[in-house]
Input
Amino acid sequence: MQLNAPTDALAALEARVADDLDRIAHPRAPWLEPHHAADGSEALDVLIAGAGQSGLATAFALQRAQVRRLLVLDRAAPGAEGPWLSYARMRTLRSPKDYTGPDLEIPSLTYQSWHEASFGAASWRALDLIRREDWAAYLLWVRRVTGVPVQNHADLIDIAPAEGPQGRLLQATIRHADGRTETRHARKIVLATGQEGAGGWWMPDFIAALPTHLRAHAADPIDFAALRGKIVAVLGAGASAFDNAATALEHGAAEVHLFCRRATPQVIQPYRWLTFAGFLRHVSDLDDPWRWRFMRTVLGMREGFPQATYDRCAAHPNFVLHQGAPWHDATPLGSGVSIATPQGPFAADFIITGTGIETNFAQRPELRRFAANIASWSDRYAPPAEERDDRLGRFPYLGRDFEFVEKTPGVTPWIADVHLFAIASTMSFGPSGSSINAMTTAVPKLAAGITRGLFKADLDQHWASLQAYDVPQAVIREPAGQASGPKIAEPLPSTVPETTA
Output
């Protein structure tokens, strides 16, 4: 996706951004000396996998902290970053338009500023929710004006330990679109890998066993035009399931049936409740029982859908909502599928599953080397029986700075330099990676944790630098007309009375 040449208003805004960033650049002093790998190559201070909104915002925050040996990897082509132009099939973002995020509290970088410069202030006032295509364009603009370095067509496929003359490093293997692989070294790695960052998209085994021409996950590329005149069954009643149902209807599907396992669909959105400073800033400071209790409740409710999402489907007379209808099995039937439900069998031509993600560290190539030693919540906390949730227990149990923690200490100590900033961070930090509403609190927390680690690792160097520091701030000169140098005042008499024995 490419933007047209900036309008006069947008060019003026970009000049304002540059001026704002210059005004708040303190402290400007560089403080990180380069580290080198054993082969002599210069290591990155931080490598970020993922150039969506979370990866870009993290890189921007680190740049502002004078972390300059920095690179962001994006597996996608330029202009196709993130989910907004791929599997996100809603018409608009679900967050209120005044939520801020990648701007990191710089007014000229907010979406509102970009929108007003692009479309006018009247357009902003009339806007209800942000179009996802506009949000994608805004993120590309943020990338450009902040100068975040991004390498496209680059996928992180392995992380291994390495040593350099100055200490521990990470060795990253990067695969390019042409199949070529490249090795880079970094002191820290951030995985801003979105929804599937600690596993993958999930569907029931009996659906996964079906031929691929009969089924798809809501996150898959889907040829919706090919569903014209077909009967489509959608499993799930979250927002993405409704989005896919609506898209199929809009492409001319003969019927779309959405199956909800609950007696009534979930319409409460817990993320609206928790968007207040106290929770976003401090839920990660709570002890494990309280963190578990809050996030189990939030994630157990799943993401509710807004009215507009439901109305988009309900506007079609050939849309049918089945409540209290989980799927027990699905088998090929002629050219389609027969689905077993408590309400009896149902025949469809095609299945779409809006069934979310499953945590499985070994499923991610970049985690595979150390997947067996990543601590999960079930390794560190045993909730009361009434609060047990095996699905959430598989989430990674992260350290103070979003870093992986070892299941068995001492086996893979280097994973403390790998920081996860994705949806799987949620159990440890509340809304964080991939969440617009939490970005202004979560990104600075992550960036501070990374710079803390970089600083502490170089303490000897900083101490030596202080010991050698000899830059005078003033020069003592003789006052004019005084040849013998400045007068030295005599000591003042003591005003404290002498004591007598």
Summary: The longest strand covers residues 154-164. The chain is about 30% helix and 20% strand. The chain has two domains: 8-198+359-459, 203-267+304-355. The mean pLDDT is 93.
